């Protein structure tokens, strides 16, 4: 017996492409059965439509496999690692789409805020799983890696992909400068503790922790004021950086997806975090390399797809905004939130002190991003430059892993 | 018996607002008594006028109190500290006004030179007092702090205050780039000794001192040539950065004030320097923090008042010029003069080697100032960014004071 | 019996100023004697013409003297040093002219490639001589010194010399930004190994070597793609940076000169390298200082002459392109080639790890070059700033030589 037959002629007049957000939660005098079916049916159809459109989502099949594999065989760490990476990728895409849909439905300012807060939810959930497991090296490496990957690789590949199709591309350099400024502030916050405390790095554990908490609040303040600036008082400066929400989901589906997928990301992240250390050792990689490069690329896959697609449509404004905005969000929102959360859920408080190589990489990624966006124009070689800086970092991390971090 | 009665009808035709500079020093056949009275009367009236206009000057009452307190009670260090800070503030304002008046009366080029040389006289006098007392940590901290405070806090607060009133403000970015370039040169001079001598920092005392003297001469040369460039060969590039001298004092009053107030600043600075160390300890602050933040804010109070007022009048050209010009002057004029003076008046020669944290802060303050002024446009959030960088530095210095400096 | 008499009326209709490249290699039915004489006669006349025009070439007389002196007296190291410096200068000028002539005759893209590859042949030959002698400190110092000298002194002196004649000069800032970007990439490659491996600098010799080789390939890739970008896909952005080849030599003469002079540079370089260490010690200079300053100035003499001459003709595009292009070429082509060559001809593999002071100087030279070229306009003081940064480096290196490098 099909659902269609069970609640008859329920969705015949239902246009899936242009659903009014109120429709699904609207308490009209249709029977509960019909509404629920309508919801499930519409949602399923939309989800399937999305999955058909986006081949990345076919990887969703690895979510149950990864969770099952971990239950069945506790020792196959490399398998767990590969399966969890394959499972996180489509979940990140879904999470990203759901967040955008919620943002699109809640109006410009609140929507911008939501996008800015939940845009890196995947990274946040993975990092929280690592935090709970006490793997602070992995947490810090994935935070530093996400900043560097977004501001060098995502930005550079956008420039390169766009540049291969268009001779010279232009973008909103005011918006780029704003994001680069936020990144620069965060870089200083990450850098100054080690610069100031060079000589008493051994004994001053307490002060370092206090300083990290204070700096976390300053970064969150900067992030909040930056949102107020870009979404409210000076939003006209950021024209051209807003994403088009072509096929925004209805709010009910979006919220449900957000909740469900976050749970799945959390579950898969536990498998991932539990297997990373062993896999890294097995492949001769350091946990720092895995966190810096692999986790960062996995976590940012959804944003990358969006940024690259925009670049190839000559909408470089949007690509730059996604890449630098995401990097700034990791640095000014995710990182301080993790420090503060570590007091609640971690086995011990986490500080903002990154190892010197990570600080240097964040600093030079920020400087590079600032240099390549300062003119507001781009060609393919600008992208090559940024990607090569990223490759230099990746090579150095692979061959010379940091010790004792 | 009033002075007016003593030398009758002397100043009836005397316009205080538009005194011709020659008038007061003019050897006209009026009796000495009359001229002296005229001078004193006019000067007093102008001074009182200034004091009435500027509430900060009411703090002048603390000058005798601070000097007396130090004589009466040698042990009340915290009281001495507070009184001397309160006394220095109005003296700095007077000194600044007197310098500008002398500059206004002596023509553009010489005036610009005087302003550029004496504009940070307060900082110089305080630093000389600390130099004579052998407190080299305080000297270096106050020099580094003045550079950072002027280029971050004064600049940032100007942008913020201006931005709260005007949506977007524009300023002369050529002038800003020039000052930032000078600052960058000074930063390199402060940074390179420690970068080059990383490994022989222990033994090479003699060479370090020689290097400091050589670098001091190079910085003074850069400063001199920079003045020649900005006041002479390319002055047209700096349009809009000149201060209006609305109520310039007559040259006699200005010179007398300059001399007298300098003496008072010197006297009060001794009280200040003598009490700083104890007060810092009593309040749990390091001498570095006090020098970096407190002395820098006190010494720059007069320039800050001028820069903030200009920003709120939408004259951001002037604000940027005061903030960055003052920072460049400290770095390229005050710092090398102190190094050279230390051979004459200090207990031992002082070098240009700052502790690593100070060098890092100067470097990032310079980079921040350079980044936020590069576009020639500003909005409130630009000011917030600069102020937050300053707060990061202040927090780090407060919580993680440098050791052995 | 004169050559003219020997092969009669051979060159009467021969215009030396406008030789068609084909002419000299053209197999026309003139007797071999005549053609050879024509070649030699034409070449000689052109060479002599060049020598008469360029007084620097009179120093060619020191080439045989330097080579002879080394054979005759093995101990007069200071004399050898001075003679070899005097001999290298004119050879560098000839090499530069020959390279340009070959480039001018081989068409734009191939010519640009040749110019870009052989433009720093002198530096490369000197460095190879030092490499073969196992003097890695000298090799690295001369590479670092060439980058810094070209991007600060050559650029600064061009700005200064041009600025003394013209009030404000403009140049192609897109080209400058491109070269500065390449330099910045190279700086990161030189800097990141030491930043990443801070803690295991002692034991990780093998990984460091592997990393150096990997980074060398990345730099060569960047250089190659940069050439493709500037000579091929986006050459229109680099308008105004091409050199005029007023008196390009015929291809035969150019190739012969290229080959012969390279041999002489190699021979004299051996004398130079063999005497540098002793001379440095005798004059109280470190090998690092000699390599950084003396070798760099000597090796870049030819480019400097061209850059300065262009600046005084208000062709600042060309000056900036020569200065920054040469610095980028050293960093992205000469340095990695030397690392790779060290596996073939050196006594031991050389890595890309420069001592911290050199890395700092390269970094700040790159930042300075980037800052002073960002606006595309220049005045004399901009040149002073760059030169003063160079003087700060030179002073620091002279007074505080690095140890154990």
TL;DR of this structure?
The structure is a homotrimer. Chain A has about 400 residues and is an all-alpha fold.
Number of helices of chain A: 16
Coarse morphology of chain A: globular
Helix content range of the residues of chain A, please? over 70%
CA radius of gyration of chain A: 22 Å
> How much is the average pLDDT of chain A?
80
- The percentage of residues in β strands of chain A lies in under 5%
SSE series of chain A: HHHHHHHHEHHHHHHHEH
Oligomer category: homotrimer
Structural features, described:
Three copies of one chain form a homotrimer. Chain A is built from 16 helices and two strands. Chain A is mainly α and 405 residues long. The first copy, chain A, is globular and about 55 Å long. Chain A has helices at 3-6, 21-25, 32-53, 62-72, 77-105, 108-118, 121-132, 136-165, 173-196, 205-233, 251-282, 287-299, 301-312, 316-345, 356-373, 380-399, and strands spanning 169-170, 377-378. Chain A has a two-stranded antiparallel sheet with strand order 1-2. Chains in contact: A-B, A-C, B-C. Chains A and B meet through helix 9 and helix 10 of A and helix 15 and helix 16 of B.
């Amino acid at each position: 017996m099909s659902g269609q037959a069970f609640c008859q002629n329920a969705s015949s007049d239902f246009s899936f492409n242009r659903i009014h957000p109120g429709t699904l939660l609207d308490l009209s005098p249709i029977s509960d059965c019909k509404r629920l079916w309508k919801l499930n049916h519409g949602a399923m159809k939309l989800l399937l439509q999305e999955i058909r459109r986006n081949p990345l989502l076919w990887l969703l099949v690895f979510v149950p496999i990864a969770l099952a594999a971990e239950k069945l065989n506790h020792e196959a760490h490399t398998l767990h690692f590969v399966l969890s990476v394959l499972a996180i990728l489509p979940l990140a895409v879904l999470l990203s789409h759901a967040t955008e849909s919620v943002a699109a439905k809640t109006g410009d300012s609140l929507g911008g805020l939501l996008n800015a807060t939940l845009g890196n939810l995947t990274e946040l959930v993975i990092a929280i799983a690592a935090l709970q497991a006490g793997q602070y090296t992995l947490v810090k490496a994935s935070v530093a890696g996400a900043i560097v990957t977004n501001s060098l690789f995502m930005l550079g590949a956008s420039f390169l992909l766009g540049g291969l199709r268009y001779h010279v591309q232009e973008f909103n350099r005011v918006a780029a400068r704003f994001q680069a400024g936020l990144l620069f502030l965060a870089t200083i916050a990450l850098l100054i503790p080690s610069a100031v405390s060079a000589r008493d790095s051994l004994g001053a554990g307490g002060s370092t922790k206090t300083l990290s908490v204070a700096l976390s609040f300053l970064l969150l303040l900067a992030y909040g004021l930056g949102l107020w600036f870009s979404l409210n008082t000076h939003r006209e400066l950021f024209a051209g950086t807003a994403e088009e929400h072509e096929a925004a989901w209805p709010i009910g589906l979006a919220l449900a997806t957000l909740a469900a997928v976050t749970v799945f990301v959390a579950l898969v992240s536990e498998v991932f975090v539990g297997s990373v250390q062993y896999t890294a050792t097995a492949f001769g990689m350091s946990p720092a390399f895995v966190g810096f490069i692999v986790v960062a690329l996995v976590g940012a896959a959804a944003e990358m797809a969006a940024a690259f697609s925009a670049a190839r449509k000559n909408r470089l404004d949007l690509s730059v905004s996604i890449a630098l905005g995401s990097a700034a969000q990791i640095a000014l929102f995710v990182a301080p939130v993790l420090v503060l959360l570590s007091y609640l859920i971690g086995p011990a408080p986490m500080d903002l002190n990154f190892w010197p190589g990570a600080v240097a990489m964040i600093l030079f990624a920020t400087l590079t991003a600032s240099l390549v966006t300062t003119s507001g124009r781009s060609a393919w070689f600008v992208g090559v430059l940024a990607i090569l800086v990223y490759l230099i970092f990746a090579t150095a991390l692979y061959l010379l892993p940091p010790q004792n971090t």
